[in-house]
Amino acid sequence: MAVLHLELPSDVQAEEASLLLAIKLWETKRLSLGQAAKLAGYSKRAFMEILGKHGIPVFDYPPEDLEAEIHL
């Protein structure tokens, strides 16, 4: 695993930066849910709740697929 060192402005906490990075990497499918949760310092369940609070769906299920599943 690579290590990244950043100098953040005084008004940005390291925990916040880690969380936002994890969210973006999850959103762009660069990290799995577990990897993103670990990066952010949360359990999977807590990270899923945080994603929801940010309006980011945990399950990316296209409406067409959902419609097909309903009519099986």
Descriptive account of the structure:
This protein has 72 residues and is mostly helical. The protein has one domain (14-70): Arc Repressor Mutant, subunit A (Orthogonal Bundle), CATH 1.10.10. It is 56% helix and 0% strand.
Strand and helix map with partners:
Layout: H1 14-27, H2 33-40, H3 44-53, H4 63-70
Helix pairs in contact: 1-2, 2-3
In short:
The protein is mostly helical and 72 residues long.
What characteristics describe this protein?
Arc Repressor Mutant, subunit A; 4 helices; elongated; 72 residues; mainly alpha
* CA(first)-CA(last) distance: 43 Å
The tally of helices reads: 4
Helix content: 55-70%
CATH class: Mainly Alpha
Mean pLDDT, nearest integer? 91
CATH A-level architecture: Orthogonal Bundle
Structural class by SSE content: mainly alpha
The major β-sheet equals:
none
Shape: elongated
The share of residues in extended strands comes to under 5%
Secondary-structure element order, N to C:
HHHH
- The structural domain count equals 1
Number of strands: 0
Uncertain runs are: none
In the CATH hierarchy, the third-tier topology is known as: Arc Repressor Mutant, subunit A
Determine Rg (CA atoms, Å): 15 Å
